[in-house]
Amino acid sequence: MPHIKPRQIVIDTDPGIDDAIGILLALASSEFSIAGITTVAGNIGIDTTTRNAGRLLAFAGRNDIPVFKGAAAPLSRPGPEPLNLHGKEGIGGVDLPAPARQPEGRSAVEWLTEFLLNEPAGTIDIFALGPLTNIARLILDNPEAAKRIGRIITMGGVIYEAGNVGPRSEFNLWADPEAADVVVSSGLPLVLVPLDVTRRVRATREFTAALSASGKPLASMVADLIGSYFETSTHQESRPLHDPCVMLFALAPELFRMEDLRLSVSTGPTGEAGALIIGETGAPVQVATGVDGPAALDLLARTLASS
Ligand code: BDR
Ligand code: CA
């Protein structure tokens, strides 16, 4: 089989249990080369999300990958209170080592700007797993660098269903709706992976036990993370794997049904903030609206077990 050069990616993230699973999946895949991880406040505060990124890299023995601390608060409104959906230390209290490397001195946006300007245009993709504050700041302050992004693939929003923090609002867009508005309306190549899809990629206890039984370190750690996710809501029979769907889409877009929609983001009061509006005045976005859930889970398990 011909060797395919891995795609360079930056993961912008607020780990977060499902963020952590997405990061481990990206680390396990030979199709990605992770140039850096940029962090954002979201599931928990910025110091904890940044530390969690470093802990995951230390666990995976990937201390060659730098971590850059990003936004501590949304662009223009107070940050949300942590939801405490992600348990102890925002990552379910799983047994991870301390970071082996400190976060870099430069901020997430400073580094992203320099990195994008130094690499060939169109060759860097951003996988955005949290509130979109860092990406919006890059677009607003350094549009020439932002234009060089290959594409942004982001977990966020909801199209045809109810939200998870408001009637029509999903957490990542709701947490910083002004940032989401900047990113969606920027016209940059954008793939949105909303709740309509991520709710259908669900880990059961049986799936989790099989991951654990594989005996592979990354798969076992993902099993522990999902196990802790069950602990935060013991009555559930399965748990949605939101953020890993970004990596799964990049690995196997054929597993997803896509729609080209024109979208805008509500920046209204808390109850509707982050809601997506479909209409002619919106910007074009490629939106995943369906997925073969079992095939996506199978790909996740195979990729984790391969490393
Ligand atoms: C999103 O919100 C966060 O809690 C998860 O990490 C995911 O990015 C799901 O709505
Ligand atoms: Ca997240």
Total number of distinct structural domains: 1
Structural class: alpha/beta
Calculate the mean pLDDT score and round it.
Answer: 94
CATH-defined fold name: Inosine-uridine Nucleoside N-ribohydrolase, Chain A
Write a brief caption for the model:
The protein has 12 helices and 11 strands. The protein is an alpha/beta fold and 307 residues long.
Could you outline the blueprint of secondary structure elements for this entry?
Blueprint: E1 7-13, H1 17-28, E2 32-39, H2 46-60, E3 67-68, H3 108-118, E4 124-128, H4 133-141, H5 143-146, E5 149-155, H6 171-175, H7 177-185, E6 190-193, H8 195-198, E7 202-204, H9 205-213, H10 217-231, E8 238-240, H11 244-251, E9 256-265, E10 276-278, E11 283-291, H12 293-305
Parallel strand pairs: 1-2, 1-4, 2-3, 4-5, 5-6, 6-11
Antiparallel strand pairs: 7-8, 9-10, 9-11
Helix pairs in contact: 1-2, 1-10, 1-11, 3-4, 4-7, 9-10
Describe this protein's structure:
The strands form two sheets. This protein has a nine-stranded mixed sheet with strand order 3-2-1-4-5-6-11-9-10, sandwiched between helices. A two-stranded antiparallel sheet has the order 7-8. Strand 1 (7-13), helix 1 and strand 2 (32-39) form a beta-alpha-beta unit. Helix 1 runs parallel beside helix 2 and helix 1 (17-28) runs antiparallel to helix 10. It contains twelve helices and eleven strands. It has helices at residues 17-28, 46-60, 108-118, 133-141, 143-146, 171-175, 177-185, 195-198, 205-213, 217-231, 244-251, 293-305; strands at 7-13, 32-39, 67-68, 124-128, 149-155, 190-193, 202-204, 238-240, 256-265, 276-278, 283-291. It is globular. The chain has one domain (7-305): Alpha-Beta Complex (Inosine-uridine Nucleoside N-ribohydrolase, Chain A), CATH 3.90.245.10. By secondary structure, it is an alpha/beta fold. 37% of the residues lie in helices and 20% in strands. The longest helix has 15 residues, at 46-60. The structure holds beta-D-ribofuranose and calcium ion. Calcium ion (CA) binds at residues 14, 16, 19, 42-43, 129-130, 243.
